[in-house]
């Protein structure tokens, strides 16, 4: 199962994409991810088709043109340096990206066509979640309450070295409503990882670990050693922890999409481990957090 759901950097390359994960390649319906690696002066033009997308600088800056709109992305030196600005691309659009660096394009199959938009780094809600060794930073740049899309949800998580995140383990595989509120949503999820001190494809670099496991009803069993640029797919089941090695920070980009009528990240904890949330009241948030904020002097 690990081999099917852990996709190392380079195994999904399809020019012009250094990484291309379509819903068809993932074996599901909605969520996708692409990564562009552009040299100085690099330019790529592509069609979004039936997917809405974002252009999210991982390292570098770019100019994005879509529907006659020009969006200048100041970007960042790395995912561990700053919160970044980004661009939203609607379905059925032709897009040109010109710049230098590495850019993630999370995507979801969409039914509504919205307008292209610029997302400023200063407007990204930064949340410190958990406490003690479960402390982490969440950049909610495309969370349901932060940025409007048709189906796409995306957030960034930064885990200080030695900490665990995506913890306690949780799942969002069923649509369930209780007392008029949604307690769990069916979502496909992608984890894209980077580890501080390592470039994508650096086989000798530091690594983190990702756990995914299921229930008796829907078994799944993954324990993946992940390096920079690796993917882990979560079609269903409990996921967590994401483990950062001591001495190295762990970054992951979460991309989520599903069939529900509303964008949501509703999930339920593994009932054996949900009690851990209550223990945070007596612990301090890791003083290393936040690891990043908006780049100084820009958006």
Structure characterization notes:
It is a single chain. The protein has one domain: Jelly Rolls, CATH 2.60.120. The model has no long low-confidence stretch (mean pLDDT 95). The longest helix is centred in the N-terminal third of the chain and has 4 residues. The chain has 299 residues and is mostly beta strands. The strands form five sheets. Strands 1-19-16-21-11-10-9 form a seven-stranded antiparallel sheet. Strands 2, 3, 4, 5, 6, 7 and 8 form a seven-stranded antiparallel sheet that branches. The N and C termini lie far apart (42 Å). Helices cover 4% and strands 46% of the residues. It contains three helices and 22 strands. It is an enzyme of class 5 (isomerase). This is 5-deoxy-glucuronate isomerase. GO terms for molecular function: 5-deoxy-D-glucuronate isomerase activity.
- Give the overall shape: globular
| Lateral arrangement of strands in the main beta sheet | 1-19-16-21-11-10-9
What is the CATH architecture assignment?
Sandwich
User: Count of DSSP helices?
Assistant: 3
CATH class category name: Mainly Beta
pLDDT < 50 runs, ≥5 residues: none
InterPro entries: Deoxy-glucuronate_isom_IolB, KduI/IolB_isomerase, RmlC-like_jellyroll, RmlC_Cupin_sf
Pfam family, one: KduI
Keywords: Isomerase
Enzyme class: isomerase
């Amino acid at each position: 199962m690990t081999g099917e759901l852990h996709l190392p950097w380079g195994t999904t390359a399809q020019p012009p994409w250094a990484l291309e994960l379509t819903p068809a390649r993932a074996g599901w319906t909605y969520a996708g991810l692409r990564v562009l690696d552009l040299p100085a002066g690099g330019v790529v033009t592509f069609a979004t088709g039936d997917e809405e997308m974002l252009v999210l600088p991982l390292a570098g800056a770019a100019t994005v043109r879509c529907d006659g709109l020009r969006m200048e992305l100041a970007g960042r030196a790395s995912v561990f340096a700053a919160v970044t600005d980004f661009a939203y691309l609607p379905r059925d659009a032709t897009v040109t990206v010109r710049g230098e660096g590495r850019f993630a394009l999370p995507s979801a199959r969409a039914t509504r066509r919205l307008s292209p938009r610029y997302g400023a780094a200063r407007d990204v809600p930064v949340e410190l979640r958990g406490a003690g060794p479960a402390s982490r930073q969440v950049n909610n740049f495309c969370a349901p309450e932060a940025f409007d899309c048709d189906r796409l949800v995306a957030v960034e998580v930064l885990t200080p070295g030695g900490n665990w995140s995506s913890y306690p383990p949780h799942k969002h595989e069923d649509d369930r409503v209780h007392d008029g509120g949604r307690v769990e949503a069916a979502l496909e999820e992608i984890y894209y990882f980077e580890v501080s001190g390592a470039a994508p494809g650096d086989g000798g670099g530091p690594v983190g670990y990702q756990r995914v496991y299921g229930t008796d009803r829907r078994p799944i069993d993954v324990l993946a050693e992940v390096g920079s640029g690796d993917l882990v797919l979560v079609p269903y089941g409990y996921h967590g922890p994401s483990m950062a090695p001591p001495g190295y920070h762990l970054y992951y980009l979460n991309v989520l999409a599903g069939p529900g009528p509303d964008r949501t990240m509703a999930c339920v904890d593994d009932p054996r481990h949900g009690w851990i949330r209550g223990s945070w009241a007596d612990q301090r948030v890791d003083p290393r957090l936040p690891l990043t904020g908006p780049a100084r002097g820009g958006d």
